[in-house]
Specification:
The complex is a heterodimer of chains A (283) and B (290). With 283 residues, chain A is mainly α. Helices cover 73% and strands 0% of the residues of chain A. Chain A is built from eleven helices and no strands. The chains are: A mainly alpha (283), B mainly alpha (290). The interface between A and B is large, with 80 and 80 residues. Chain A: It is found in: Cell membrane.
């Protein structure tokens, strides 16, 4: 009876909540179509145009407003995200695999790994820079020091995802392989890995996207050459133009493309698993 | 018998080799850097240089300056407010998604809808609040058009309020997720039984639903706390440098190569964080609940 009032009220509330979540994005999308190059990052829209999108790609005649310095930063960020993805997924799979067996000090190791996602990025970034500058005496780069902090951040996510997957894992298939005399490494490659592949994909997606957008860790640890988030941060201190919003819309579309690829790969691997299960049934 | 022992030995050897890379990485690039911050906070800082001679000078400077202690209190205040707003804004949503929506598909769809904004770069999400909150921003335009206000509200941008609004929107999803997860695990029979015994919704909520959702609240609060306490970008971009959190102080100090003071602030931040997380873990024993 009360739920007849409460449920619709809550439903309405959730609609408002979604509006709150999407408000800024809607506004930034609208403003990205502002007239250029004189139109500013505010309302009202003087005239709708794709000027700022063309400006991002360098297709507009030169004007007072400099194009965003994103080209090389984008490539650096993509390479860094790929490196981070590979290393933290490998580390995550290895550690989670080790956790399937109880061992002494497992609680300690667990907290050591999870600490990586708990410690604020600004602290890991600061500490790593201090270490590089004052103790080891090396220069900071996005592919060395910043890479190290990125993995220390994304590895825990990969580890937790793999832990969740391996918790639900039926070990009898592995035991069957072992009892047939297959060595552990081949068993892992041929039996375990295909079964945990959806988890591996999720871990990779996590690590890639977290690294691509990682900012506080990179700020101190990356040295001279900027990554993409640092280049965006650089625009904070100067006057904002709608080109940054056009760029935001484009990167969001890129993220969706990435998510679709993930979805397709996930769907394929689930279908393959089903197919294999069916073949087993027939056999 | 002997063969089982060797198998066990071999397996524990495998376990060790599987663990070593992760442990080494986290020790070198997480534990050692934090220890380094503590160590450097006692170094001697001169205008152009820093040396490892131990001194308490930076610590004394931190606690004798209103700028630094003030930023500590600002950080704690903003953290408490954002914790409250994310909870107040997030809980009803979590309640709807986790408890009231019967269809599994619909609740998944709603959660995905909540997560989608995270596919825009964090910094651009922060910047997007500027055309929202400004004097000629979207909110003012809409409120003027509807006729709720006659004059544009000016306190929306470049104030503490703008930082709170921005952070609430950016972080409230981290509150919604864990709470919705805990709520979806509640056995519906308990609620039915309470209803059969004549309990009203308010009573059921306070006696059953809320206590059972508490572990989710704690997990959400830990997420939000970790992120808000270490923040500096949102406060920098939306307050016009009026709100200085500990993170902002670290950034400015590093910017002027005052590594020792940055380290002191870093240690203070670490201590605050430790106390906050330990406090939350005392309220709810997560290991038992999850």
């Amino acid at each position: 009876m009360e739920s007849r009032i409460i449920k619709p009220a809550l439903g309405l509330y959730v609609a408002l909540f979604v509006l709150f979540l999407y408000g800024p994005f809607v506004v930034l999308t609208i403003i990205s179509f502002q007239q250029g190059p004189d139109g500013g990052p505010q309302f009202p829209i003087v005239e709708w145009s794709t000027y700022w999108y063309r400006q991002v790609f360098g297709l507009t005649p030169p004007s007072r407003i400099a194009p965003l310095p994103f080209g090389e930063a984008l490539i650096r960020s993509l390479v860094l995200a790929l490196m981070t993805m590979v290393v933290s997924t490998v580390l995550g799979v290895m550690s989670a695999q080790a956790f399937r067996r109880s061992f002494k000090g497992s609680a300690f190791v667990f907290y050591l790994i999870v600490l990586g996602m708990m410690v604020p990025g600004v602290l890991t970034g600061l500490g790593t820079s201090l270490l590089a500058n004052n103790i080891i005496g090396i220069e900071r780069h996005w592919y060395t020091t910043a890479f190290a902090t990125h993995v220390a951040y994304t590895f825990p996510f990969a580890f937790l995802v793999m832990l969740a997957i391996l918790n639900r894992f039926d070990a009898s298939v592995e035991e069957a392989a072992w009892s047939l005399g297959v060595d552990p490494w081949t068993t892992f490659r041929k039996v375990t890995f295909p079964l945990i592949f959806p988890g591996v994909l999720s871990a990779m997606l996590f690590a890639f996207t977290l690294s691509l957008d990682e900012f506080p860790r990179t700020l101190f640890a990356s040295g001279r050459d900027q990554t993409l988030p640092l280049a965006i941060y650089g625009t904070f201190s100067v006057e904002i133009h709608p080109n940054i919003f056009a760029f935001g819309v484009l990167t969001t579309l890129f993220s969706f493309a990435l998510l679709s690829v993930y979805g397709i790969l996930m769907g394929l691997s689930v279908r393959r698993a089903k197919k294999m299960a069916m073949q087993e049934d027939i056999a | 018998m002997t063969s089982t022992v060797t198998i066990q030995e071999r397996q524990s050897k495998v376990t060790r080799w599987l663990l070593i890379p992760g442990i080494v990485w986290m020790s070198l690039f997480l534990v050692v850097p934090i220890a380094m911050i503590v160590y450097v906070s006692f170094w001697t800082q001169t205008t152009f240089n820093i040396s490892s001679d131990p001194t308490l000078a930076s610590w004394k400077q931190f606690f004798s300056s209103d700028t630094y202690t003030g930023s500590l209190w600002t950080t704690i205040r903003i953290w408490l407010i954002v914790l409250a707003t994310t909870f107040i804004v997030g809980y009803p949503t979590a309640l709807f998604v986790g408890l009231f929506v019967k269809s599994k598909t619909l609740s998944t769809v709603l959660l995905v809808v909540c997560v989608i904004p995270f596919w825009t770069s964090f910094l651009i999400r922060v910047l997007a609040w500027r055309p929202m909150l400004g004097k000629e921003g979207a909110i003012n335009i809409v409120l003027l058009k509807i006729g709720i206000i006659q004059q544009p509200i000016e306190v929306l941008l470049f104030t503490e309020l703008s930082v709170i609004i921005g952070m609430t929107q950016i972080y409230c999803v981290f509150m919604v997720g864990p709470i919705a997860f805990m709520l979806s695990r509640i056995d519906r029979n308990i609620i039915e039984a309470a209803r059969d015994l004549g309990a009203g919704f308010g009573r059921i909520f306070w006696k059953i639903i809320f206590p059972l959702s508490l572990p989710g609240v704690v997990v959400g609060a830990i997420f939000v706390s970790v992120m808000v306490l270490g923040e500096f970008a949102t406060s920098g971009a939306l307050s016009g440098r009026k709100v200085n959190l500990l993170g902002n102080i670290i950034v400015t100090q590093v910017g002027s190569l005052k590594w020792a003071m940055a380290s002191v602030v870093g240690v203070v931040l670490t201590i605050v964080m430790g106390i906050v997380i330990a406090g939350f873990l005392r309220i709810v024993d997560l290991k038992r609940e999850l």
